[in-house]
């Protein structure tokens, strides 16, 4: 197996366990957590915001972890900790206990995102970067799908069964990830400027204008993710009065959309260019967030689940665009700042939107703000260079 493909599978496994199961696997359980009395309505929202906020901590910690440890060892440790967080969530010990593990998995996901995707783009051949990143980001969709597919059956037996099912799938992903990162070399920054031969310290971060715009777009994108990430299943079950089985089905469709989206958006970007592809995907995501609270029919709900679910495809495209923005240089500095921007925006946006819902009890303004942020991300991307790659 080519080494780049092995690392793509390693990143896929990390995103399956950490993001698909660890981060997004919480959302479909919110109605059951509230109805069982394990969490209050406000507590459930704040735990979702804690998980989002942990992302920025992980991104800020990543450079120090790189200095202290081998990156592959960090990735392997993150896999084990992500699995441990799923196992620990089985215990019904309330807000503080669950909040700690949700915060931790947010930290872990950021580290795995920065290092795992950087391995993929660093070692993939130039003509395989889009394919490699697409493989990596399908892990998000696989985790979402597997966490939701058996959820109604598991929840009938109790919350512990639901968490246990996620942990069982996570154990398989952890085993794949541990295999993939075994013996991986260190990530290395470029050693010299081509024109002078001077050594460039790894700590110097030279981000071009297009890179800075991508940082801003990622921040807006992350705010747009919040309504669905925390409230989508809750909106369907408690807002629209649908049974939990319907909520779980729609979350499974989010997973299907995530798997298909990495292929669909990647191929579209290959055809029309990475910049045009980003504008298209952010515009589609904006519509998928706004429409369900304005015209919540069955077809619109289905559209929203599938299209919103496709958002990992945008991450695959934007990772490729980040590498393009950096040229021959490593994308680690830019990708880290993009992850920091995601975490920072999620702390502010997560707390703000959760508080907005808690004060109003109304889902509509939460989703409208999220959709507007995603639309603004499309506008920012429209201002990027439209030059096609060589």
Would you spell out the secondary-structure blueprint of this structure?
Elements (H helix, E strand, L loop, with lengths): L2 H21 L6 H6 L5 H28 L2 H18 L5 H30 L5 H21 L1 H5 L3 H23 L27 H31 L4 H29 L1 H21 L3 H12 L1 H16 L5 H29 L2 H20 L8
Describe the structure concisely.
This protein is an all-alpha fold. Helix content is 79%, strand content 0%. The longest helix has 31 residues, at 209-239.
Descriptive report:
It is built from 15 helices and no strands. The protein has a single domain (3-185, 206-382), classed as MFS general substrate transporter like domains (Growth Hormone, Chain: A), CATH 1.20.1250. The chain starts with a helix and ends in an 8-residue tail after the last helix. The chain is mostly helical. The protein is 79% helix and 0% strand. The model is unreliable at 189-204 (pLDDT under 50).
């Amino acid at each position: 197996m080519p080494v780049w493909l092995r690392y793509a599978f390693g990143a896929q496994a990390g995103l399956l366990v950490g993001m698909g199961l660890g981060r997004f696997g919480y959302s479909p359980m919110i109605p059951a957590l509230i109805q069982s009395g394990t969490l209050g309505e406000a507590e459930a929202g704040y735990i979702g915001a804690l998980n989002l906020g942990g992302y920025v901590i992980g991104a800020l910690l990543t450079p120090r972890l790189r200095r202290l440890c081998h990156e592959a060892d960090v990735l392997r440790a993150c896999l084990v900790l992500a699995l441990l967080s799923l196992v620990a969530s089985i215990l019904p010990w309330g807000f503080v206990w669950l909040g700690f593990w949700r915060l931790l998995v947010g930290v872990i996901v950021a580290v795995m995102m920065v290092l795992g995707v950087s391995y993929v783009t660093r070692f993939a051949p130039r003509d395989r970067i889009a394919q490699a990143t697409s493989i990596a980001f399908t892990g998000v969709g696989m985790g979402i799908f597997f966490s939701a597919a058996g959820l109604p059956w598991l929840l009938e037996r109790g919350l512990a069964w639901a968490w246990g099912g996620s942990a069982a799938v996570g154990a398989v992903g952890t085993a794949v990830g541990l295999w993939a990162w075994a013996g991986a070399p260190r990530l290395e920054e470029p050693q010299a400027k081509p024109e002078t031969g001077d050594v460039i310290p790894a700590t110097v971060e030279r981000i071009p204008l297009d890179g800075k715009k991508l940082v801003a777009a990622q921040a807006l994108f992350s705010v747009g993710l919040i309504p669905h990430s925390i409230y989508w299943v809750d909106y369907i079950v408690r807002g629209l009065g649908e049974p939990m089985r319907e909520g779980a089905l729609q979350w499974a469709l989010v997973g299907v959309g995530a798997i298909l989206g990495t292929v669909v958006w990647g191929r579209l970007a290959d055809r029309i260019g990475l910049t045009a592809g980003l504008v298209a995907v952010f515009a589609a995501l904006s519509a998928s967030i706004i429409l369900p609270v304005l015209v919540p029919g069955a077809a619109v709900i289905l559209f929203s689940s599938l299209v919103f679910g496709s958002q990992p495809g945008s991450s695959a495209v934007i990772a490729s665009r980040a590498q393009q923005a950096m040229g021959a240089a490593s994308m680690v500095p830019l990708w880290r700042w993009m992850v920091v921007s995601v975490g920072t925006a999620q702390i502010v946006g997560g707390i703000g939107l959760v508080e907005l819902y808690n004060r109003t009890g109304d889902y509509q303004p939460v989703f409208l703000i999220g959709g507007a942020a995603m639309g603004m991300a499309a506008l920012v991307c429209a201002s990027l260079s439209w030059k096609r790659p060589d």
